[in-house]
Amino acid sequence: MIIQLKNQLQVKTAAVWQSKLRETLRQGSLTLAGLTIFVLCWATLAANLHTSLGQFPGPAVVAGQLKALVAEHQAEQLREQLFYQRQHERLTNNPAAVARPYNGRPTFFSQIQTSLQTVLSGFLLASLLAIPAGILIGLSPLSYSAVNPLIQLLKPVSPLAWLPLITIVVSASYPTDGMFSRSYLVSVFTVALCSLWPTLINTIVGVSQVPADLQNVSKVLRLNWYRHVRAIVLPSAVPMIFTGLRLSLGIAWMVLIAAEMLAQNPGLGKFVWDEFQNGSSDSLARICVAVGVIGFIGLILDRLMLALQKAVSWDKSVQLR
Amino acid sequence: MKKHLELSQVGISFPTPKGPFVALQNVNLSIAKGEIISLIGHSGCGKSTVLNIIAGLLKATEGGVILNQKEVNEPGPERAVVFQHHSLLPWLSVYENVALAVRQVFSGKMTKPQMQQWIEHNLALVQMSHARDKKPSEISGGMKQRVGIARALAMQPQVLLMDEPFGALDALTRAHLQDSVQQIQAELGNTVILITHDVDEAVLLSDRIVMMTNGPAATVGEVLQIDLPRPRDRLALADCAKYNHYRHQVLSFLYEKQRKIEPLPVTKNNQNKPQAKALAEARV
């Protein structure tokens, strides 16, 4: 009897695994099919597209450039290593010599790193501003009415419009020898200013839509303002806040690339712009690599936020995707 | 009889574009300590409004409520509410939901271990100790309502206000919870005010049944004293002539004296159409 049950259970779990495996295989093969069709279309179109910089790069050329970029990065790293080695020897031989930092050309991968640091700083700044502000505004219908038109007015402003203002303000008010470089600050402020709106709006909505039943619980318990916010309002708004944060991060990444391109701030955007100005026969392929990498990083950032959103959301009945 | 909770000339009206709408007027009720009172009436007769006024969640526009010689003008834990839809915080475990109330009411009066014990005690009272670490979404409707009751009891209220606490539950679960409430009340001697739609529930649980007339301007129609010995057993009562007599009296109030033709069932399709609503209201 027990053995029979056990067998049944095993059969059942095996069946579950099989159906899961089938689902994964199905999804995987569909993704692969989509990608294949895309690459084929791309290859055919590229073969027939002639530009001032020569043939538009197909998949094979772009893959070759990706390899070349990796090789350049490795070569640059090696040069840096050798420089510090030489400097170390010089310093040990002559203690009076001045130590200098390595001043090499930023490679594609160091640009990626710069962009990631900038986007995360900007996003963090935006969140630190938007979440507390959203809570305060959401709690008071009066301040909501006062601020809402302003939010609606500022939300659609393009990063390109903010950029000149921010550049001028930063160069007027920040010393050139400060802790951060000016270009970094300009990028961070632009990203923050453009990406804070979804978080702000979602926080306001989340905070102002605490169910009446829960508000009544808070009243019956006579929770004071702080405990009401801590115990009832914030947890209740958390799913909405994280929805906003995820949207904000997506916008932050998009805005950053545009800001870097236009303002010549270091990062992936500058890489694209430099290649465009450079106009060599490799440029188009290198820009294609950058486009792919920008998309891929955006995807990864979104998946990370989704994982975080799933982890903090108490409402397991909502399907997050 | 020493007056415990007293409602005198309570009335409430809401402003509407067509002038004030009087929902409730001249509600007079005097409730003794340890009494179980049920409010019964057709939907829309203002039962919940009365309860919310006692809870302090709504302000009466006329008259007032006095609890132990003090006027009620804001909500407070001495008048704990068991809400119709349990109102547990979905992100907290069963234990934490009760703990929130206990920490708020007894901070400074109890030590941490005492509080812990008190939370456990109240969970045990409603037989929910086994699920203390579960989230509300992981337990059944009846269990959620039990936790809601535990949370209210843990505030050690002078008056326990229950707004159709078992309305959303199936008949078996409801019977079970009714027995629990009877037992707990016998043990603790709380004053209980209970809103119900269910005639059997009202007769089984109450010392007095307050029957309300239909709104607008609803008020107390009749008050029925239930003289049945406690503890009451639903099986034995089923054949009891007195029980059936009380039951009959409530039914005749609801279906003869305060006869109300229910509007057409509002379906999803016509829910938002003003004509359908107007039609439904016209039929009432």
Enter the CATH topology name of chain B.
Rossmann fold
C-alpha termini separation of chain A: 43 Å
> Could you say which overall geometry of chain B the principal axes of the C-alpha atoms support?
globular
CA radius of gyration of chain B is: 20 Å
Chains forming the largest contact: A-B, 19 and 24 residues
| Alpha-beta content class of chain B | alpha/beta
- Binned, the helix content of chain A reads over 70%
CATH superfamily of the domain at 111-312 in chain A: MetI-like
What is the N-to-C succession of helices and strands of chain A? HEEHHHHHHHHH
Which range does the strand content of chain A fall in? under 5%
Strand content of chain B: 15-25%
Total number of strands of chain B:
10
CATH class of chain B: Alpha Beta
Q: Report on the biggest sheet of chain A.
A: 2 strands, antiparallel
What would you say this structure looks like, in words?
The complex is a heterodimer of chains A (321) and B (284). Chain A is an all-alpha fold. Chain A has a domain of 202 residues: MetI-like (MetI-like fold, Orthogonal Bundle). Helix content of chain A is 80%, strand content 1%. Chain A has ten helices and two strands; from the N terminus they run H-E-E-H-H-H-H-H-H-H-H-H. A two-stranded antiparallel sheet of chain A has the order 1-2. The longest helix of chain A has 46 residues. Chain B has one domain: P-loop containing nucleotide triphosphate hydrolases (Rossmann fold, 3-Layer(aba) Sandwich), CATH 3.40.50.300. In chain B, strand 9 and strand 10 form a beta hairpin. In chain B, helix 3 crosses helix 4 and helix 6 packs across helix 8. The longest helix of chain B is centred in the middle third of the chain and has 18 residues. Chains A and B meet through helix 7 and helix 8 of A and strand 6 and helix 2 of B.
Kindly list the characteristics that best describe this protein.
A: 321 residues, mainly alpha, MetI-like fold, two-stranded antiparallel ribbon, 1% strand, B: 284 residues, Rossmann fold, 6-stranded mixed beta sheet, 4-stranded antiparallel beta sheet, 10 strands, 37% helix, disordered C terminus
